[in-house]
Amino acid sequence: MHSYEVIFILDPALGDDGVDAAIAAATGVVTKEGGEVAEVQKWGKKRLAYEVKKRREGHYVFLRLQAPVKAVAELQRHLNIAEPVLKFLTVLAPAPQRKFGKAKTPATIPQETRTNDVDADGLAVDAQDDTPGTRGTSLGPHGAASGTRRTGAEEQEA
Predict the structure, then answer these.
(1) pTM exceeds cut of 0.85
(2) What whole-number distance in Å separates Cα of residue 154 and Cα of residue 90?
(3) Run means of pLDDT, 10 residues per run, the chain, 158 residues
């Protein structure tokens, strides 16, 4: 059995009894087909983003259930046929991951020796001979060289 989340929107003209009856019918379909409803949330009457079946509002209902595929197919068939249902959406929910024991810490990775270092001005310096590398090149946040373009005045000054 898989975990599913179902959201459906009911006709705003329904009273509380009508909403409860529609929820009971939907949960009855799931349990009849061998599934179980884990959670039911009534989100209340909300304004829709656009008209659906000439309605601007609807009662939102959320169901979380554990059911076989056959039960979900039957629920979707029921929601398509049921007159007070304006719209519905069924989503396969990701299974919760269980953690057993202590969490493993990642092994410490030795830091690689870089061939380029940075001097006090932020310019690249070759680590082997301590002479300035390409002027105007500074190391980026991930150690990659990012060059800067020099103007004519800066070239004459250097």
Answers:
(1) no
(2) 64
(3) 94 94 95 93 94 94 94 95 95 78 59 55 56 52 56 61
